[in-house]
Automatic annotation (TrEMBL):
Molecular function terms from GO: deoxyribose-phosphate aldolase activity
NCBIfam families: deoC
InterPro entries: Aldolase_TIM (IPR013785), DeoC (IPR011343), DeoC/FbaB/LacD_aldolase (IPR002915), DeoC_typeI (IPR028581)
Highest classification ranks of the organism: Archaea, Methanobacteriati, Methanobacteriota, Stenosarchaea group, Halobacteria
Protein's recorded name: Deoxyribose-phosphate aldolase
Active-site feature positions: 90, 151, 176
Function: Catalyzes a reversible aldol reaction between acetaldehyde and D-glyceraldehyde 3-phosphate to generate 2-deoxy-D-ribose 5-phosphate.
Subcellular location: Cytoplasm
Family (UniProt): Belongs to the DeoC/FbaB aldolase family. DeoC type 1 subfamily.
Record flagged with keyword Cytoplasm: yes
Organism this protein belongs to: Halorubrum sodomense
Amino acid sequence: MNREEFAASIDHTVLGPETTPADVRTVLDEAADHGMNACIPPCYVSEAAEYENAPETIATVVGFPHGQHAPAVKRDEAVAAWEDGADEVDIVINVGRLKAGDDGAVADELADVVAAVPVPVKVIVETALLDDAEKRRACEAAVAADADMVKTSTGFADGGATVPDVELMSEYLPVKASGGVASYAEATAMLDAGAVRIGASAGVDIVEGYPE
C-alpha cells in the first residue's frame, strides 16, 4: 500500500460533544490536504458538503453514540445526513437489544437504514461492550441487513479497536477499526489484521508517520 492508498484508508474524525464548526473545518482541511476522508457530526454535514476544501469522502454518524434512538429516528437521521451530502453513514447498533437476544430487531433496524440511503452504511458494534459471541451476532446482523462494513467502536465506550476484534469481525464484512488508533504503527497493525479503514482523530499523525 503506497502513501496515497494508505491515506485514503483513514477517516480523519472529530465527533466530540464540544465540536464546533471551526473544529470541523480544521478536520476537513487536514483530511483534504493529506488525502484522507473525514468523519464529522451530522449537524455539520450540509456545511461540510459545501466547504471549498472538503475531502472527497465525508462520513457521518447515526444513532450516536449509544445506539438507543428509536428505529424510525435512526432511519430519518440517515436519510437527512445523505440529503445533506454525506457520502457514508456509520450507525450504532442497539447494544441493549443485542444483549437481550433480540437479534432480529437489531438486523431489521439496520436493514431499514441500509434500504433508506443509497450510500455505504458501516455498522458500529461497540466491541468494548460485547463478548466474542455477541460480536459475532452483531456482525451477523450487519450481514443480514446488507450493510457494507462493520466498525469496532464509537470511541465513547471504555475501549476501542483491538487486533483480535478486527480479525474476528473481518470474517464477516470489511472492517473499520476505530477507537484509540493514534499512530502509524497502530494503524498498520489494524490493517494487517484485516481492517480496510481506520477511524481516528489522530489522522494527521498517522499519515505523517508513513515511512518516506
